[in-house]
Write a structure and sequence with these properties.
Elements: E1 2-6, E2 12-16, E3 26-35, H1 38-45, E4 60-68, E5 78-81, E6 84-85, H2 91-94, E7 105-106, E8 119-123, E9 127-129, H3 136-140, H4 142-154, E10 163-166, H5 170-181, E11 187-191, H6 194-202, E12 207-210, E13 224-229, H7 234-243, E14 244-252, H8 264-270, E15 273-276, H9 285-292, E16 302-307, H10 311-320, E17 327-331
Parallel strand pairs: 10-11, 10-13, 11-12, 13-14, 14-15, 16-17
Antiparallel strand pairs: 1-2, 3-4, 3-8, 3-17, 4-5, 5-9, 6-7
């Protein structure tokens, strides 16, 4: 089968690989669409410490079952992938907290080849049925929407509350819509790229502020019940603390580059909660519902659509800053 093989940092190439073997409890899926995630760029750059080479990346995927060695899935079933691998025997896994097991890993990063390929083999618990009314691109976007859903859920958002989102990339744009759909009132987003801010406005942001120039934390002091941080730096967490109301909540989903200092005394004085949001649990139902109902408009953030052969060049240009992209969608077959 044809796949994109990551042999080492910045060594992503089209390769012909043997079709992966199928064991009991596993399902072979023909990949229809697979999105390029921000973590994929980090893996490809060699900046994700747990990436193991060589590997086929890709975890935001939809497809069709072609062969099944598991009960419940049949050839022809349309599916999307919940890409977390874990230990079925772990009681935490059985509770649905698949992201909290010691064995947790994401498809296409450590031990299991991912979906930048014509086919991928996954465990039966990693599949979700795609409703008839959902197209393949939208199905592939359910996974990043689940990231946004969990970040909002971690904030314990209440109806009508105000939300500030740092970053209007792929997840940030989904967060703007998800927060709205789950009850937020005022939603403000910041970013360094004007084009992304304009898209954020179209997708429901009440304000879209250019970071570094127009955004000043003091201007927004004590205005937001919730701040969701996609950057995860000392500066953004500090700005979030300034912007929070008394009793506010900060959720960091951006992966920090290292340890940061948090002004605990200031947080204590405002009774602010700081939470992190990494991955998601086994439940994709809310994310799938929001996409199906059109409350989160996923196709509007897809800026590039390519076939496998075109993907390495485009990904390289994006990583080098030679081409701007929000979401790249790969079709292992024809577009």
């Amino acid at each position: 089968m044809k796949a994109l093989l990551l042999r080492g940092p910045r060594q992503l190439e089209v390769a012909e690989l043997p079709s992966p073997a199928l064991a009991g409890g596993q399902v072979r899926v023909r990949v229809c669409k697979v999105g390029v995630c921000g973590s994929d760029y980090s893996s490809i750059a060699g900046k994700l410490p747990f990436t193991r080479f060589p590997i086929v990346p890709g975890h935001e995927a939809s497809g069709e079952v072609v062969e099944s060695a598991a009960a419940g899935w049949r050839p022809g079933d349309r599916v999307l992938i919940h890409p977390i691998l874990g230990n079925r025997a772990d009681p935490i896994f059985a509770r649905g907290e698949v992201h909290h097991t010691e064995a947790t890993e994401v498809l296409g990063v450590v031990s299991r080849n991912g979906a930048y390929a014509e086919e991928v083999v996954v465990e039966d618990y990693m599949l979700r049925a795609v409703p008839p009314e959902m197209d393949d691109e939208s199905a592939a976007m359910v996974e990043p929407v689940a990231v946004a859903v969990r970040a909002v859920e971690r904030s314990t958002l209440r109806a009508g509350e105000s939300v500030l989102v740092f970053g209007a990339g792929n997840i940030g744009l989904l967060l703007v819509q998800t927060a709205r759909a789950l009850g937020a009132g005022r939603v403000v987003v910041t970013d360094l790229v004007p084009a992304r801010l304009e898209l954020a406005r179209r997708l429901g942001a009440g304000e879209a502020v250019l970071a570094g120039e127009s955004f000043r934390a003091a201007r927004y002091e004590k205005q937001f019940d919730v701040v969701i941080d996609g950057v995860g730096s000392a500066a953004t967490v500090g700005d979030a603390l300034t912007a929070c109301t008394r009793g506010g909540r900060i959720v960091v989903y951006g992966v920090p580059a290292g340890d940061i200092t948090f002004a605990l005394n200031a947080a204590f004085s405002k009774d602010v909660t700081l939470a992190t949001s990494r991955l998601y649990d086994a439940n994709f139902e809310t994310a799938q519902r929001l996409v199906t109902e059109g409350q989160v408009r996923v196709k509007e953030i897809i800026t590039h659509r390519v076939v496998l052969e075109e993907a390495p060049g485009l990904i390289s240009r994006v990583m080098d800053g030679r081409e701007a992209a929000i979401k790249v969608m790969i079709s292992p077959g024809a577009l």
